[in-house]
Write a structure and sequence with these properties.
The protein contains ten helices and 15 strands. It folds into two domains: about 170 residues, 4-Layer Sandwich (Metallo-beta-lactamase, Chain A), CATH 3.60.15; about 60 residues, Arc Repressor Mutant, subunit A (Orthogonal Bundle), CATH 1.10.10. The chain is of the alpha/beta class. Helix content is about 40%, strand content about 25%. This is Zinc metallohydrolase, glyoxalase ii family. InterPro entries: Metallo-B-lactamas, NDM-1-like, RibonucZ/Hydroxyglut_hydro.
């Protein structure tokens, strides 16, 4: 992990997993933007910051996925810091079993309760929402970036750096992830259009770091989502069960899927199916005791 200055008092702790943003206050305390995937990396964060004489005032969680809040519990215990998140994401952070529960629709099987999907619980201190917000005496602009998750937030530091969480993915990451995870496809499209209007700012991606060609990255993300949408539309030209849809998507995208990946893909495909049904392009019905989807 390496501490990099982006601009002014805005930094990033970069690693092979999701990057952690950082804003340094005048008193040498700091706001982390996410906390990384686990206790091991969280301990490394504390060591790096301790070498500079910095302490953690708080953690701003963009969303509740484990690679973004997995370090919360350890850091909060060690630094007695605040944790800020949206109302929906706070519920998942406080009760992380809800993430695998939402994928499995019941108490999750043990397979889905590992640290990849279910981080250690932590306690959100403050519910925060969109708009200009005072954080430790400094004004930050908070953005609603719903789409990848139900309550994802972005944050613009006073240096004009916009941390977008997982609302955009860099080109090299898109090549590795040809079917993006979304919880609400319609909201994701809205989020990307809103980000396009903010493209004069400097963007920092959790998976990809600082980027300059913001409109191009937005277009690339649109392309991946629209490609997946068109594949689903083609599959649904004949009635299919969700299992049949899954099999076809995996085959057409040449995906390598283990059991964890399967449930993650299942959840994302469900978001696409919700979008098609809610937009009036597809229907859902039962036939011969099977639940089926089809284009109208």
């Amino acid at each position: 992990m390496k501490l990099q200055q982006i601009k002014g008092s805005t930094y990033a702790l970069e690693s092979d997993t999701a990057a952690i943003g950082l804003y340094l206050f005048e008193d040498r305390s700091c706001l982390l933007i996410d906390s990384g995937p686990n206790q091991k990396q969280a301990a490394e964060v504390l060591q790096i910051l301790g070498e500079s004489g910095w302490v953690i005032w708080g953690i701003f969680n963009t969303h509740a996925h484990a690679d973004h809040c997995g370090g919360n519990q350890y850091i909060q215990k060690e630094q007695h810091c605040q944790i800020l998140a949206s109302e929906i994401e706070a519920t998942f952070i406080n009760h992380p079993i809800l993430t695998p529960y939402s994928m499995y629709s019941a108490h999750p099987i043990k397979l889905l309760t590992g640290k990849f999907l279910m981080p250690a619980p932590s306690q959100v201190s403050r519910i925060i929402g969109p708009g200009v917000q005072d954080i430790n005496g400094i004004e930050f602009e908070i953005l609603d970036l719903t789409g990848h998750s139900l309550g994802q937030l972005g944050i613009i530091t006073p240096d004009g750096i916009l941390f977008v969480g997982d609302s955009l993915i860099a080109q090299n990451e898109l090549e590795l992830n040809p079917f993006l995870y979304v919880s609400d496809l319609g909201k994701q499209f809205e989020t990307m259009e809103m980000l396009r209007a903010k493209s004069h700012l400097s963007f920092y991606l959790s998976h990809g770091g600082e980027i300059e060609n913001v409109p191009d990255i937005i277009d690339l993300n649109y392309g991946v989502l629209n490609d997946a949408l068109h594949i689903l539309e083609d599959i649904l030209r004949k009635p299919c069960t969700r299992e049949e849809i899954m099999r076809e998507v995996i085959a057409r995208k040449s995906l390598q899927v283990n059991r964890n990946h399967y449930f993650r893909l299942w959840a994302s495909i469900s978001a696409f199916l919700s979008y098609l049904c809610d937009e009036g392009q597809a229907i859902i019905y039962t036939e011969d005791n099977y639940l089926k989807f089809s284009l109208k």
